[in-house]
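Progress against Task 2.4 (sequence-to-structure conversion) is shown through the following example record, which the project officer requested during the mid-term review.
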Amino acid sequence: MIKKLQQSFTVFLEETGELAYFTGRFFRETFKRPFEWKEFLRQCYNMGNQSLLLVGVTGFIIGLVFTLQSRPTLQQFGAVSWIPSMVGISIIREIGPIITALICAGKIGSGIGAELGSMRVTEQIDAMEVSGTNPFKYLVVTRILATTIMLPILIFFGDAIAIYGSFLVENIKGGVSFLLYFNEVFKHLEFGDLIPATIKSFFFGFAIGLVGCFKGYNCKKGTVGVGLAANSAVVYTSMLLFIIDFIAVFLTDIFFDL
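Structure tokens generated for the chain above:
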């Protein structure tokens, strides 16, 4: 039992060191010429286009369910009028970013891990190195930058759809108009709600791209490793997202709630 724990801890330290080196290499390669603009834009389009419907449907359901579950309790205390502000702040500050990031971790992160893993085991990455192309810059840098840029946009879209779903419930249940509902939402929003949520969404996107590329680029054990790379990319990214979210909430409590 102790030996297994020691081995697991050793593997954890090794992977942490490799990930740190991988991150450092990413920052070094990012500012070197040439810049792969076409591949970067293609990755941005693919990630956004493929995830938009899933994020929208999930956000809409979250808005519906959150409002339906909260309304009866607030109705008992005569606080139904607080639903727009409560839903808006909750979704924008916490629920929207973390749920959207987890969905993208499963959709985008696993896709990156499987794609790069299959390229590694079929020696396509080795062929790129032999031909004089920098595979790290072409495959890794473009994907990490694309996830970092696209995830905040997807989170913004998911938040808007979730709040609209909440409005539909209030419109049907309480006859609240569109203008009144969204006036109440934006009246109670502050910069302390928007800025931390926006900043941490960039870190969420960076974590998804970084772990997915790391697992896929360093894939081993043949075709079996492709599945392991995709699976481990989702698992490790999900854990990392919760850690980043905790740090973000902790720092927000210090700097924005003084």
